[in-house]
User: Fold this.
Amino acid sequence: MTPLRQQMITAMQVRGFSPRTHQSYLSAIRGLARYYRQSPERLDQDQIRTYLEYLACERQLSASSCRQALHAIRFLFVQVLQRDELDVPFPVPKQPQRIPELLTRAEVAQILAACTNLQHHMMLEVCYGCGLRVSELCQLRVSNIDSQRHLLRVIQGKGAKDRAVILTDTLLQHLRAYWQQCRPADWLFPSSLLPDRAIHPTSIQKVYSQAKARAGVRRHGGIHGLRHAYATHLLEAGLPVHQLQRLLGHSDIRTTLRYVHWLPGVAEKRSPDTDLLARLEVGRG
Assistant:
């Protein structure tokens, strides 16, 4: 391991960056070093600009990939190497703001009904009923369930933050039934091949895609669509935006406000109905 790589890893650890951020930042710097075939610490502002243009124009990377590379490069030069002269704006493609294809309650119910494997069904229920990211879902442990307080503790979610999410009566009952039948010991959703390890996010994505296909739901997008559905359905049910921000684990309220923009005309109510799964069951009835 080169001293520069170790410096960067240490700087990320001190700041509490997630393992995923470690991986993406180091990968971005490796790409920069390979492009110029020299240590990145020797590069100047023009070389960085040329490399970012190469990513956008020749490799035609997405706007998010280009911005991620920029964040990694800026972190290396400004935070690690203390080269403040490189803390300047660099042109990168503008991030497109697209409205996702939002799942209706009926479509969520169809997807859940199409998932007959108990563990798989429970994973999708928890994902929708708690609005979790797939990385948070696969890292859940049985001990994260606080049945007395009706809370689910999400440990070290995005941005290395813990938060508590509401466990409604319906979801808690379903989790108890799941535990009585499957008896998970540590991980709430263990890997079928390696029971001492958590299920991999790719496996969960595959479960969702297969269930959606069987249900005949043709909306684009992966399992993150359940998190979008959770947010929009709670807003429709009257949950205030600042409470939704806390449940979703958003650092910036502007991220949560996108859901309000996607749902024009939604008025906040005084008594929100947060038991989304119960509403699905009523709809099926």
Remarks:
- The longest helix spans residues 19-36.
- The domain at 3-86 is CATH 1.10.150.130 (DNA polymerase; domain 1).
- The beta strands are 145-146, 151-157, 161-166.
- The chain has 13 helices and three strands.
